[in-house]
Write a structure and sequence with these properties.
This protein is an alpha/beta fold. It has ten helices and eleven strands. Helix 6 crosses helix 8.
Length: 247
């Protein structure tokens, strides 16, 4: 039986854009805002973050890290600094803000892909990872092992939102669900917060995810198929959903 609903867990404005791309497919769209994002407390003194005679690398791990991070930096902080983006969307956000990243994974959009870049295999220096608390621990540890001096700048934070009753009711009324996940944190949050009967409906359906890492996490919940989209953008996610609906 063709699923009747698609659950989108992307944050805005990406969620609304993906919902628009899925219009006309004969399914009801449910959008679920999992987190709200707030400025964070970096935990680092930007005025003294860079040793004078050292290689300097700023790593932006999401579009949110760019959005909230750049506004907190003192003037000139990124001058002469190598800038890395975790993936193409983050790179585009940096470029819109007037900064061209020098290190972007040729393929992939996660810590492993970034660590595979040749620029990070050479002479180590000082790295500052712009992210939210609880994220990118593997990246941090891998850079330490390569003898980088590494600090986190927690420039934003995620505040969990409880799933509203309207989402619960829509899921309970569904005849099959395709859910879309771009974040392991969002998946864990929803799994722990959603009403059990509604969550069971999600788990019985197909999961569309953006990476093997999220797929591994989804496998702990899913009773239906898990599809890894060709990329993290809405074009690829919409294509994966369409393919499931056509089967």
């Amino acid at each position: 039986m063709k699923p009747s609903h698609v659950l989108i867990t992307r944050p805005e404005p990406q969620s609304a854009d993906l919902a628009q791309r899925l219009q006309g497919l004969g399914v009801d769209i449910i959008t679920l805002e999992v987190f709200q994002f707030r400025p964070g407390y970096p935990g680092v003194d930007f005025s003294s973050a860079w040793p004078r005679a050292d290689r300097r690398l700023a790593i932006f791990c999401s579009t949110r890290a760019v959005e909230f991070g750049l506004r907190q930096l003192p003037a000139g902080f990124l001058d002469g600094v190598e800038i890395a983006a975790i993936g193409p969307a983050t790179a585009r956000e940096l470029e819109r803000a007037g900064w061209t990243p020098t290190i972007v994974p040729e393929s992939g959009f996660d810590s492993e892909s970034l660590l595979g870049e040749e620029a990070l295999a050479g002479r180590p220096g000082s790295a500052l990872i712009f992210t939210a608390p609880g994220g990118r621990e593997m990246l941090y540890q891998a850079l330490l092992e390569r003898e980088w001096k590494v600090q986190f700048a927690h420039v934003y934070r995620r505040e969990p939102l409880a799933p509203p009753a309207s989402v619960r009711d829509a899921l309970l009324a569904s005849d099959g669900v395709i859910s879309v996940w771009t974040s392991g944190s969002a998946l864990q949050q929803v799994a722990g917060q959603m009403e059990p009967r509604a969550w069971s409906r999600v788990c019985a359906g197909a999961f569309v995810v953006v990476s093997e890492r999220v797929a591994d996490l989804a496998a702990t919940f899913a009773r239906g198929p898990i599809i890894v989209a060709d990329g993290p953008g809405n074009v690829d996610l919409a294509a994966a959903v369409r393919a499931l609906l056509d089967t």
